[in-house]
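Hypothesis: this fold can be encoded by more than one sequence.
Test: take the structure tokens below, design a sequence, compare later.
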């Protein structure tokens, strides 16, 4: 039922309650006279209900809220005057008494209208504040706060609008950072590819130089291909376009396979890498390829940020309803200022000039999206030294089954 129907129902309930009270009072003195006041008040109440219903249906034509409040008060006063008139005519009261009661009712109605308009003025001020603020947001302003004078539902609406403004500002800032980061990561290899193409086109290179240039060409094309694929995957994950299937998955073999695949890279840098998964760990409900993608991203980051002679450890432990995996390293750790941003797309910490060729900064953002699509979560553990990234996966249900992964939007 809409607001108009609720208001009309409330009016009808009040009218019926008034009829019942009057009838009881009259019946207590004269059992045969109870029907007369009830018969007089019922038509007035029915008329007021019909008028309220019609007014509610024509809210758009009435315009301002203050006018709607005045119409509501006018309906209530009108039905009272109608009831007084019926009592004067049908119950043979004197015209003087009827006029006096009507004046009292009219005076009370005027006071009610004045009071309603005074209350409506404060409400309208807050409504106009909300309207002006939202129109400013529509024009592109983001550095404003909407403040109302009261602490009512309009204040709650203003708080919700302010939260929306903050989210819009954060999303627009993230979009600008994304465009800037993509532009940077595309500009460097494209510039190198242009120089390589010009050198090859000049046809003045020796066979050895041509071979070296072709090698660089493949490296830059691989970097561009990886960046574009990561962007597409991030876009699909954020849009909820997840179609992979999940099944009961034993983590011991998957973790061991991932660590062995990363061992050559770790050995080349002088970093030890090991897996510690307890025997008999309950299987999780997950997609093997996607979970391995998360582990590859986390272990790659850990090796990259660990000094020679340091170590990386991948472990797992059973929790209530889930299994938590931990990728820990003995590197320099993540600064307090960066901890809340490490899972944002393209965030790598520090300046871009200082990062070297460490990737585009999408690995952790994609990892978070994959984990959340499985119904788990990923976060930084607070233990020091080094960095500990922990993520959870739900336990597999009893019996083999397969289902489509449900996507949770990255937080």
């Amino acid at each position: 039922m809409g607001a108009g129907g609720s208001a009309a129902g409330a009016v009808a309930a009040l009218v019926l309650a008034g009829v019942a009270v009057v009838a009881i009072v009259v019946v207590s003195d004269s059992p045969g006279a109870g029907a007369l006041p009830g018969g007089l008040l019922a038509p007035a109440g029915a008329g007021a209900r019909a008028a309220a219903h019609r007014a509610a249906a024509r809210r758009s034509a009435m315009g301002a809220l203050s006018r709607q409040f005045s119409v509501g008060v006018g309906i209530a006063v009108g039905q009272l005057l109608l009831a007084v008139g019926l009592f004067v005519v049908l119950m043979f009261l004197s015209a003087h008494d009827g006029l006096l009661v009507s004046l009292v009712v009219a005076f009370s109605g005027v006071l009610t209208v004045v009071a309603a308009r005074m209350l409506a003025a404060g409400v309208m001020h807050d409504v106009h504040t909300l309207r002006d603020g939202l129109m400013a947001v529509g024009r592109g302003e983001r550095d404003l706060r909407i403040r109302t004078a009261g602490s009512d539902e309009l204040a709650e609406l203003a708080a919700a609008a302010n939260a929306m403004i903050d989210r819009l500002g954060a999303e627009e800032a993230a979009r600008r950072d994304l465009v800037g980061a993509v532009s940077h990561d595309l500009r460097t290899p494209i510039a190198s590819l242009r120089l390589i193409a010009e050198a090859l086109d000049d046809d003045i290179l020796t066979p050895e130089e041509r071979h070296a240039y072709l090698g660089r060409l493949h490296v830059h094309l691989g970097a561009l291909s990886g960046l574009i694929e990561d962007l597409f995957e991030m876009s699909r994950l954020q849009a909820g376009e997840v179609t992979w299937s999940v099944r009961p998955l034993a983590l011991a073999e998957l973790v061991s396979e991932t660590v062995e695949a990363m061992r050559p890279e770790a050995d080349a840098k002088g970093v030890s890498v090991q897996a510690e998964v307890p025997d008999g760990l309950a299987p999780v409900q997950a997609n093997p390829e996607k979970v391995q993608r998360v582990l590859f991203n986390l272990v790659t980051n850990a090796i990259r940020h660990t000094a020679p002679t340091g170590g990386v450890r991948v472990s797992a432990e059973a929790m209530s309803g889930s299994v938590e995996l931990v990728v820990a390293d003995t590197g320099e750790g993540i600064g307090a200022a960066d901890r809340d941003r490490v899972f944002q797309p393209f965030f790598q910490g520090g300046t871009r000039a200082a990062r070297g060729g460490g990737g585009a900064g999408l690995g952790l953002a994609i990892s978070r999206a994959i984990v959340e699509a499985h119904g788990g979560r990923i976060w930084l553990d607070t233990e020091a030294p080094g960095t500990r990234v922990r993520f959870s996966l739900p336990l597999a249900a009893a019996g083999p089954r397969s289902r489509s992964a449900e996507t949770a939007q990255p937080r």
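Strands lie at 245-249, 272-276, 284-286, 311-319, 322-329, 378-380, 387-394, 403-404. The chain has ten helices and eight strands.
Hypothesis status: open.
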